[in-house]
C-alpha cells in the first residue's frame, strides 16, 4: 500500500470516529434533557396533586365548621317568663277555669317543660300539678314557635277549687332536670292589671300547644 493511500484511509477513519463521537454526545445530551423534562413534569404533577389535596382539606374543614355553626344555631333555648309574656284569664260557667297563656315574643323558637310553677299570694309552695308533682320530670316538653303561644289551665269548676280572689302570682318555669327552674321568678300583680282571678284548692295542667288541649287535660274542655 502506498503512503498516499494509507494517509487517505487514516483521514477517513478519523472523520468516521469524530462523527460517531459527536452522535453519541448528542444522544447523551438528548437523553439527559428528556430525563430532566420527565422529572420536571413529575414534580409539577406532584405539586398540583398536593395543592388539590390541601384545597380539599380546606374546603372540607370549612364545610365541617359551617355544619357545626348550623347545629349550634338550631339549638332551641328554654323559654323564660316575664310580666308581659304570661297572662291569666278567668273563665266562668260550669267548666270554670283559669287559663294561663305564655307568648314567645322573640323571633326564635323556645322550649317549655312540664307545667308552670305558680305561687299565688306569696304561697310557700307552688300550686300542685295535675300531671306529676313539682320537681318531677315526666317528659312533657313542647317547642313554642317564634311569636307563638302555649297554654296551661287551672280548673275552678267547684267551690273548693275556685276559692277566693287572688292578689298576685309568682311564676317560675320548670327546667329540663328534676326540680330545676329557668329564668324566674317573676310576679304578676292582678290589681295593677285589673284582673280578677280566683283560685282555691286546685291544680295546674302541663303546658299544651293549644288552649283546647290544656282544657281537655284539665277536664274542662268540650
UniProtKB/TrEMBL annotation:
Residues covered by region (Disordered): 31-66
Domain DUF4232: 79-207
Keyword 4Fe-4S: no
Signal peptide boundaries: 1-25
Compositional bias (Basic residues): 49-58
A Pfam match: DUF4232
InterPro entries (alphabetical): DUF4232 (IPR025326)
Designated name of the protein: DUF4232 domain-containing protein
Top-rank taxon, per record: Bacteria
Keyword check for Signal: yes
Species name: Streptomyces mooreae
Keywords on record: Signal
